[in-house]
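BUG: 3D viewer hangs when loading the predicted structure for this chain

Environment: internal workstation, default settings.
Expected: structure renders.
Actual: progress bar stalls at 90%.

Input used:
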Amino acid sequence: MMGRMILGGLSVGLSLLSCATNPPPGEKEAAPWRESRRDVKPVEQARCGDHVLLSSKAAMAKSPRPNLDAERLALRISPGLVAEDAAYERIVEDLQAIRAVAKGKTVAKRTWPHQSAQGVTLKPRPKVIEAMKAGTYTGLDCLNAWYGGRFLASSPSLDMVFVQFDGWYLGARIAEAYGSHPDIIWSEPSSFGGAGDDIRLCNERIGGTHRYVLSHGSGDCPGGCIDWVHRGYEVTDKGEVTALEPVWTIRGLGKSSERPAWAHDGCFREPYRPMDPAQ
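Structure tokens produced before the viewer hung:
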């Protein structure tokens, strides 16, 4: 009798243990991470004051990349501060394939900086200017340390400051980073005047077939270029290149050939729209 009572007790105990560890029929078992999540603390983002630092040291260290044209093009479609690896690597392959097909033709030799920047122009508050002249200002040290910035020498009469970087950043993002500092009145990415050869990627994202426009400018390019030759190319994800016809030419004021269908607005979205007297 005693043996039966002990076995009965063990049976009840195991049954209760099973109910405690296994959910009733029809109910889903709780995922293990739901129990442990309450013990996980959120990762704090690095900051300089109120500014949440962008990108990472590892990503920024990749710039400048070996292929400057591919990096600039990748920057235009990358959402962050620096060019994404996948975008850069695909564009490198695309440009190599296009150059092989376009050999001997008049095409763009390089990209124009446009949205990419290696510097920012800052207008600090008057008290900051005085501290900078005295050599006692340290307010931007944290940002400079993270983004690799350094002050460039400028005329004492200027109320602006120039910060230079070794790598290439998306101009708007790096300008916002420095412009968010309370000591800065406004911030703009450093820019290039005039115009010149450029390569444009018509796609807004990487993947599938890419369409490119290689624009060669000539004639007073420091003032914006008078003559243009725009050639279009499509590159599949297998590296197959198709030259788009016809070539779009602009010869002086009021002498533009008809804009071809392949040169859609996406290829010349602002601020890269070329000078076109016919429009």
